[in-house]
Amino acid sequence: MKRGANAPLTRENPGLTGVVAGIRADAGAETVLTDNLVVAAILCGPDRKVVSDEHFVFFNQLATPDMSVQRIEEALGADRDQIEIDLHAVPDPVASIVFVMYVNDGLSRGRSLGRLRRCEIRVLDLATGAELIRSEDLAGALTAETGLALGELYRHQRDWKFRVLGDGYAEGILGLARDYGLTL
After folding, report:
1. pTM of this prediction?
2. One Pfam family this chain carries (predicted)?
3. β-strand 69-71 against 118-125: which pairing, if any?
4. pLDDT for res 105
5. Alpha carbon distance, N-terminus to C-terminus of the chain
6. In degrees rounded to 5, what are phi and psi of residue 72?
């Protein structure tokens, strides 16, 4: 799917109860960049701001308090990172879940996402492992950015949909924190 495109999930798959967001990022021989990539999920309210500090899932906070969204400790297959979402357990105040990636200390170390050879987000059926959605390669449009909003899982009426974002941030986690109301 291209940037900005969206697709229905639960309407097309009525038995879908959970999904896995898989992130693939390839920096080639740039191991310092690969070692410093952080993938996270931000659970937002209707105002597109994080519901609370406990609703930012990343390496220091592996799950939401209700366990509806959690990082998978060891990603399966070719995904670099995976985040599991129990669609029925996501609390009502959450309107969307935004999946982001940033370079930890990217601003101070001169590393950027523009060095990535490939970057994709995909959505899998949690029960079967079947791929439901895959973004286009987002790496080609990146230059000096150190943060990236990859995509979002969002409520639409009574269903869940997914949208590819591909929004880059030159300020990395600081820009993401500003836009999504995170406390760092």
Report:
1. 0.96
2. TerD
3. unpaired
4. 74
5. 32
6. -90, 125
| Of the candidates 31, 8, 28, 5, the residue with the CA atom closest to the CA atom of residue 109 | 31
> Mean pLDDT per 10-residue run, the chain (184 residues)?
98 96 93 89 99 97 98 90 98 98 76 94 97 97 96 97 98 96 94
Q: How far apart are CA 151 and CA 132, in angstroms?
A: 14
Order of strands, sheet of 131-134, starting from the edge strand that comes earlier in the sequence = 69-71, 81-86, 18-26, 118-125, 131-134
97, 107 Cβ separation under 8 angstroms = no
**How far is the C-alpha of 147 from the C-alpha of 111, rounded, in Å?**
11
> Which residue in 71, 72, 69 sits closest to 51, CA to CA?
69
Q: Which amino acid is at 104?
A: N
Sign of the torsion formed by the C-alpha atoms of 41, 45, 49 and 51: negative
Quickly tell me which residue has 């969307």 as its tokens.
96
Burial of 81 (0-12, 13-18, 19+ CB in 10 A): buried
Which CATH class name applies to 6-180? Answer: mainly beta
> Whose CA is closest to 115, among 151, 146, 79?
146
